[in-house]
DNA-binding HxlR family transcriptional regulator
Amino acid sequence: MSEAEAATELDGSAPPFDVFARQCPSRGTLEHVTGRWGSLTLGALSGNRLRFNELRRRVDGVSEKMLSQTLHALERDGLVHREAQPTNPPRVDYELTPLGHEVAGRLLGLIQLVEGRMPEVLDARGRYDGARGA
Amino acid sequence: MSEAEAATELDGSAPPFDVFARQCPSRGTLEHVTGRWGSLTLGALSGNRLRFNELRRRVDGVSEKMLSQTLHALERDGLVHREAQPTNPPRVDYELTPLGHEVAGRLLGLIQLVEGRMPEVLDARGRYDGARGA
Protein backbone atom coordinates (compact mmCIF):
# COMPACT_ATOMS: atom_id res chain seq x y z
CA MET A 1 0.00 0.00 0.00
CA SER A 2 1.36 3.44 -0.94
CA GLU A 3 1.48 6.24 1.58
CA ALA A 4 -1.30 8.03 -0.28
CA GLU A 5 -3.50 4.92 -0.20
CA ALA A 6 -2.81 4.43 3.49
CA ALA A 7 -3.85 8.03 4.07
CA THR A 8 -6.99 7.56 1.97
CA GLU A 9 -8.04 4.51 3.97
CA LEU A 10 -8.46 6.71 6.99
CA ASP A 11 -11.89 8.21 6.42
CA GLY A 12 -12.94 11.79 6.95
CA SER A 13 -14.71 11.34 10.29
CA ALA A 14 -11.45 10.51 12.09
CA PRO A 15 -8.44 12.80 12.08
CA PRO A 16 -6.76 11.96 8.76
CA PHE A 17 -3.47 10.88 10.28
CA ASP A 18 -3.06 8.71 13.36
CA VAL A 19 0.28 7.49 14.68
CA PHE A 20 -1.49 4.70 16.56
CA ALA A 21 -2.53 3.05 13.25
CA ARG A 22 0.27 0.87 12.02
CA GLN A 23 0.03 1.77 8.31
CA CYS A 24 -0.36 5.50 8.81
CA PRO A 25 2.63 7.36 7.30
CA SER A 26 2.65 9.69 10.31
CA ARG A 27 4.07 6.82 12.36
CA GLY A 28 7.19 6.74 10.16
CA THR A 29 7.65 10.49 10.47
CA LEU A 30 7.23 10.32 14.25
CA GLU A 31 9.95 7.66 14.26
CA HIS A 32 12.29 9.84 12.21
CA VAL A 33 11.68 12.71 14.61
CA THR A 34 11.89 10.78 17.86
CA GLY A 35 14.39 8.10 16.88
CA ARG A 36 17.66 7.83 18.77
CA TRP A 37 19.59 10.03 16.33
CA GLY A 38 16.70 11.95 14.78
CA SER A 39 15.76 13.65 18.03
CA LEU A 40 19.36 14.62 18.85
CA THR A 41 19.99 15.83 15.28
CA LEU A 42 16.90 18.05 15.32
CA GLY A 43 17.85 19.33 18.77
CA ALA A 44 21.41 20.11 17.67
CA LEU A 45 20.17 22.01 14.59
CA SER A 46 17.75 24.08 16.65
CA GLY A 47 18.97 27.64 16.11
CA ASN A 48 22.14 26.43 14.38
CA ARG A 49 23.23 26.03 10.78
CA LEU A 50 25.88 23.28 10.91
CA ARG A 51 28.20 21.36 8.65
CA PHE A 52 28.16 17.58 8.75
CA ASN A 53 31.23 17.26 10.98
CA GLU A 54 30.06 19.99 13.36
CA LEU A 55 26.81 18.12 13.72
CA ARG A 56 28.62 14.85 14.25
CA ARG A 57 30.66 16.32 17.11
CA ARG A 58 27.54 17.75 18.72
CA VAL A 59 25.56 14.49 18.53
CA ASP A 60 28.07 12.62 20.66
CA GLY A 61 28.38 8.96 19.69
CA VAL A 62 26.70 8.97 16.27
CA SER A 63 28.52 7.20 13.43
CA GLU A 64 29.04 8.87 10.06
CA LYS A 65 26.72 6.35 8.44
CA MET A 66 23.91 6.78 10.97
CA LEU A 67 24.10 10.57 10.86
CA SER A 68 23.98 10.48 7.07
CA GLN A 69 20.91 8.19 7.08
CA THR A 70 19.24 10.33 9.74
CA LEU A 71 19.80 13.53 7.76
CA HIS A 72 18.43 11.97 4.57
CA ALA A 73 15.24 10.86 6.32
CA LEU A 74 14.76 14.29 7.92
CA GLU A 75 15.48 16.06 4.62
CA ARG A 76 13.01 13.81 2.78
CA ASP A 77 10.31 14.59 5.37
CA GLY A 78 10.91 18.33 4.82
CA LEU A 79 12.31 18.97 8.31
CA VAL A 80 15.95 19.66 7.40
CA HIS A 81 17.31 21.71 4.52
CA ARG A 82 20.61 20.65 2.98
CA GLU A 83 22.57 23.28 1.11
CA ALA A 84 25.67 22.43 -0.91
CA GLN A 85 27.89 25.41 -1.66
CA PRO A 86 29.63 25.31 -5.08
CA THR A 87 33.08 25.62 -3.52
CA ASN A 88 36.14 23.42 -3.80
CA PRO A 89 36.11 21.35 -1.67
CA PRO A 90 32.29 21.38 -1.57
CA ARG A 91 30.80 22.70 1.62
CA VAL A 92 27.47 21.34 2.81
CA ASP A 93 25.38 23.03 5.48
CA TYR A 94 22.31 21.69 7.25
CA GLU A 95 19.60 23.76 8.86
CA LEU A 96 16.01 23.30 9.99
CA THR A 97 13.11 24.21 7.70
CA PRO A 98 10.24 26.22 9.26
CA LEU A 99 8.39 22.95 9.93
CA GLY A 100 11.60 21.45 11.34
CA HIS A 101 11.81 24.42 13.72
CA GLU A 102 8.32 23.77 15.02
CA VAL A 103 9.00 20.08 15.51
CA ALA A 104 12.37 20.75 17.17
CA GLY A 105 10.71 23.25 19.52
CA ARG A 106 8.30 20.59 20.84
CA LEU A 107 11.12 18.07 21.02
CA LEU A 108 13.35 20.42 23.01
CA GLY A 109 10.50 20.98 25.44
CA LEU A 110 10.40 17.23 25.98
CA ILE A 111 14.21 16.95 26.24
CA GLN A 112 14.38 19.74 28.81
CA LEU A 113 11.62 18.13 30.86
CA VAL A 114 13.43 14.77 30.83
CA GLU A 115 16.82 16.33 31.69
CA GLY A 116 15.28 18.37 34.49
CA ARG A 117 13.48 15.42 36.06
CA MET A 118 16.33 12.90 35.94
CA PRO A 119 16.80 12.98 39.74
CA GLU A 120 13.23 11.61 40.06
CA VAL A 121 13.88 9.05 37.32
CA LEU A 122 17.06 7.83 39.01
CA ASP A 123 15.25 7.58 42.36
CA ALA A 124 12.53 5.52 40.70
CA ARG A 125 15.14 3.22 39.15
CA GLY A 126 16.76 2.73 42.54
CA ARG A 127 13.42 1.77 44.12
CA TYR A 128 12.53 -0.54 41.22
CA ASP A 129 15.86 -2.34 41.29
CA GLY A 130 15.87 -2.47 45.09
CA ALA A 131 12.42 -4.08 45.20
CA ARG A 132 13.69 -6.79 42.85
CA GLY A 133 16.96 -7.33 44.71
CA ALA A 134 19.01 -6.17 41.71
CA MET B 1 25.78 26.30 21.46
CA SER B 2 22.67 24.99 23.14
CA GLU B 3 20.65 27.00 25.61
CA ALA B 4 21.97 24.78 28.38
CA GLU B 5 25.56 25.47 27.35
CA ALA B 6 24.85 29.18 27.05
CA ALA B 7 23.39 29.15 30.56
CA THR B 8 26.51 27.41 31.84
CA GLU B 9 28.75 30.08 30.38
CA LEU B 10 26.77 32.71 32.22
CA ASP B 11 26.51 31.24 35.70
CA GLY B 12 29.30 28.64 35.71
CA SER B 13 27.22 25.75 37.04
CA ALA B 14 27.32 22.71 34.78
CA PRO B 15 23.87 21.41 33.83
CA PRO B 16 23.72 18.04 35.60
CA PHE B 17 22.05 16.12 32.78
CA ASP B 18 22.57 16.47 29.04
CA VAL B 19 21.06 14.12 26.45
CA PHE B 20 23.74 15.15 23.94
CA ALA B 21 26.47 13.55 26.09
CA ARG B 22 26.67 9.88 25.28
CA GLN B 23 27.13 8.57 28.82
CA CYS B 24 24.44 10.74 30.41
CA PRO B 25 21.61 8.58 31.82
CA SER B 26 19.10 11.12 30.49
CA ARG B 27 19.82 9.83 26.99
CA GLY B 28 18.52 6.37 27.95
CA THR B 29 15.37 7.83 29.47
CA LEU B 30 14.77 9.98 26.38
CA GLU B 31 15.07 6.80 24.31
CA HIS B 32 12.54 4.97 26.49
CA VAL B 33 10.17 7.90 26.13
CA THR B 34 10.63 8.54 22.41
CA GLY B 35 11.36 5.02 21.19
CA ARG B 36 9.03 3.40 18.68
CA TRP B 37 6.84 1.72 21.29
CA GLY B 38 7.59 3.93 24.29
CA SER B 39 6.06 7.02 22.71
CA LEU B 40 2.91 5.18 21.60
CA THR B 41 2.55 3.44 24.99
CA LEU B 42 2.79 6.73 26.89
CA GLY B 43 0.37 8.33 24.43
CA ALA B 44 -2.12 5.46 24.81
CA LEU B 45 -1.97 5.66 28.62
CA SER B 46 -2.56 9.39 28.61
CA GLY B 47 -5.82 9.80 30.50
CA ASN B 48 -6.41 6.03 30.50
CA ARG B 49 -5.89 3.21 32.95
CA LEU B 50 -5.51 0.13 30.79
CA ARG B 51 -4.91 -3.60 31.06
CA PHE B 52 -2.11 -5.19 29.08
CA ASN B 53 -4.32 -6.47 26.29
CA GLU B 54 -6.25 -3.21 26.00
CA LEU B 55 -2.95 -1.41 25.63
CA ARG B 56 -1.78 -3.93 23.07
CA ARG B 57 -4.87 -3.35 20.92
CA ARG B 58 -4.41 0.42 21.13
CA VAL B 59 -0.72 0.34 20.18
CA ASP B 60 -1.44 -1.27 16.83
CA GLY B 61 1.36 -3.59 15.71
CA VAL B 62 3.27 -4.05 18.96
CA SER B 63 4.19 -7.62 19.93
CA GLU B 64 3.51 -8.98 23.40
CA LYS B 65 7.24 -9.17 24.08
CA MET B 66 7.99 -5.62 22.94
CA LEU B 67 5.07 -4.16 24.89
CA SER B 68 6.21 -6.03 27.99
CA GLN B 69 9.79 -4.73 27.64
CA THR B 70 8.54 -1.21 26.97
CA LEU B 71 6.32 -1.23 30.06
CA HIS B 72 9.14 -2.51 32.25
CA ALA B 73 11.48 0.27 31.09
CA LEU B 74 8.80 2.94 31.62
CA GLU B 75 7.90 1.51 35.04
CA ARG B 76 11.57 1.43 36.08
CA ASP B 77 11.98 5.08 35.04
CA GLY B 78 8.98 6.01 37.21
CA LEU B 79 6.73 7.00 34.29
CA VAL B 80 4.24 4.14 34.44
CA HIS B 81 2.62 2.58 37.50
CA ARG B 82 1.75 -1.12 37.37
CA GLU B 83 -0.92 -2.35 39.72
CA ALA B 84 -1.68 -6.03 40.16
CA GLN B 85 -5.08 -6.77 41.69
CA PRO B 86 -5.18 -9.83 43.99
CA THR B 87 -7.94 -11.46 41.96
CA ASN B 88 -8.14 -14.83 40.31
CA PRO B 89 -7.13 -14.66 37.52
CA PRO B 90 -4.81 -11.75 38.44
CA ARG B 91 -5.70 -8.45 36.84
CA VAL B 92 -2.94 -5.99 36.06
CA ASP B 93 -3.59 -2.36 35.26
CA TYR B 94 -1.17 0.23 33.92
CA GLU B 95 -1.45 3.97 34.34
CA LEU B 96 0.80 7.01 34.13
CA THR B 97 2.51 8.41 37.22
CA PRO B 98 2.38 12.20 37.71
CA LEU B 99 5.78 12.49 36.00
CA GLY B 100 4.56 10.16 33.23
CA HIS B 101 1.60 12.50 32.70
CA GLU B 102 3.90 15.46 32.23
CA VAL B 103 6.11 13.59 29.80
CA ALA B 104 3.10 12.22 27.89
CA GLY B 105 1.68 15.73 27.64
CA ARG B 106 4.78 17.02 25.85
CA LEU B 107 4.89 13.91 23.70
CA LEU B 108 1.25 14.29 22.67
CA GLY B 109 1.95 17.88 21.67
CA LEU B 110 4.67 16.58 19.38
CA ILE B 111 2.47 13.75 18.04
CA GLN B 112 -0.38 16.13 17.27
CA LEU B 113 1.97 18.52 15.49
CA VAL B 114 3.35 15.68 13.34
CA GLU B 115 -0.12 14.28 12.55
CA GLY B 116 -1.42 17.72 11.66
CA ARG B 117 1.47 18.55 9.34
CA MET B 118 1.62 15.25 7.45
CA PRO B 119 0.26 16.84 4.22
CA GLU B 120 3.38 19.04 4.19
CA VAL B 121 5.60 16.07 5.00
CA LEU B 122 4.10 14.00 2.16
CA ASP B 123 4.52 16.93 -0.27
CA ALA B 124 8.17 17.23 0.77
CA ARG B 125 8.68 13.49 0.22
CA GLY B 126 7.16 13.76 -3.25
CA ARG B 127 9.51 16.62 -4.16
CA TYR B 128 12.53 14.82 -2.69
CA ASP B 129 11.80 11.56 -4.53
CA GLY B 130 10.89 13.41 -7.75
CA ALA B 131 14.18 15.33 -7.76
CA ARG B 132 16.01 11.99 -7.52
CA GLY B 133 13.88 10.24 -10.15
CA ALA B 134 12.58 7.75 -7.56
Helices of chain B lie at 3-11, 25-34, 36-45, 52-58, 64-76, 98-116, 118-131. The CA atoms of residues 43 and 104 of chain B lie 6 Å apart.
